[in-house]
Amino acid sequence: GYGGHAREILPRLQPGGRLLGLDADPIELPKTEARMRALGFGPEVFEAHRSNFAGLPQVLASVGMSGVDLILADLGVSSMQLDDPARGFSVKHTGPLDMRMNPRRGLPASAVLERTSVDDLARLLVDHADEPHAVSLAPLLAGRSFRTTTELAQAVRAGLPRLAEDVADLTVRRVFQALRIAVNDELSALDRFLCALPVCLKPGGRVAVLTFHSGEDRRVKKAFAAGRLDGLYAAISDEVIRPTPGEQSANPRSAPAKLRWARRAG
After folding, report:
1. Would the pTM count as exceeding 0.85?
2. What is the C-alpha to C-alpha distance for residues 183 and 178, in angstroms, rounded to an integer?
3. Which residues contact 10 (CB under 8 A, 6 or more apart)?
4. For a designed S-S bond to 168, which of 112, 162, 163, 215 qualifies (C-beta 3.0 to 4.6 A apart)?
């Protein structure tokens, strides 16, 4: 993202601490690095690396680190991505139906939707967004060509004309979420990250993961529980941690966030 977590963590790591920031987005990463430099955090304490979560072991190896004391993974889409119409992430802005975290790799959402079968799209909508209207929507969207975010949103609403406006809005957001996850292969990257986590932490090291939908949270919960049974983690969070009402009021986009943590066996 734009380094919000980094800005809060870096002062707490001094003296002697070091933070590696990972982001797959080649557009936003340089902006974040420049922001951290402007705040006075030089390369000796902050390094930016273009990678998704699954690339963490390779990033650590590239800087000669065998393990770290703390890992924080924020799985949400950044506000800069959502608020840039050219990126095509948000239904609130008319833009190309793209949704790629890295616009230089893979297919845009428009092409993914055009190449996806009805059955596959129905499964995608359920698996990635728990969409209750997946079976009804899939035949209306699969294999069709939508150039813009607005065209897709209008097609979803037109396909479910009996829904109340607020319910239809939720469905549109879920469709966008499911497509974004598919376009960026987010759940596969998360699975690889969770598998690699224990070897990336030093003994006694801690990890905290912020998820934003049930598919992500289920994976994190299951991986932490399995790791505890296998003796990889000495402790895990018993309950999910949610934003307070005050946090949600100050930052409405935090409302669906869930945080889980684990501590590496020492």
Report:
1. yes
2. 9
3. 17, 19, 36, 39, 41, 45, 46
4. 163
